Amino acid sequence: MEEQKIKEVTWQQTKIRNAEEYQNKIFDSLNNQSYVSKKDKRITLTNGDEYTEFISCSYLGLDQDVRILTAASRNLERAGFSFSSARTRMKYSGLDELENLLNQVFMASTVCFSTVHLVHLGLIPLLGSGEIPGFKIRSAPHFILDKYVHASIQINRGLMTQFGNVSLVDFNEVDSLLKIIKSTSSEGNTPILICDSVGSMGSTANIKLLVELIKQYDGYLYLDDAHGMSTFGTHGNGYAMMVLEDVLDDRIILTTSLSKAFGTYGGLAIVKNPKAAEFIKKFCSTYIFSGSLATPLIEASIVSAKIHLSEEIYQLQDAVSDNLLLFDTIISPNIRIINRNSAVSIRGWYIGGEFEAITAGEYLKEHGILATVATYPSTPKHQSLIRFGICSNHTEAEIIKLCTLINLK
Question: Does the global pTM surpass 0.90?
Answer without folding.
Answer: yes
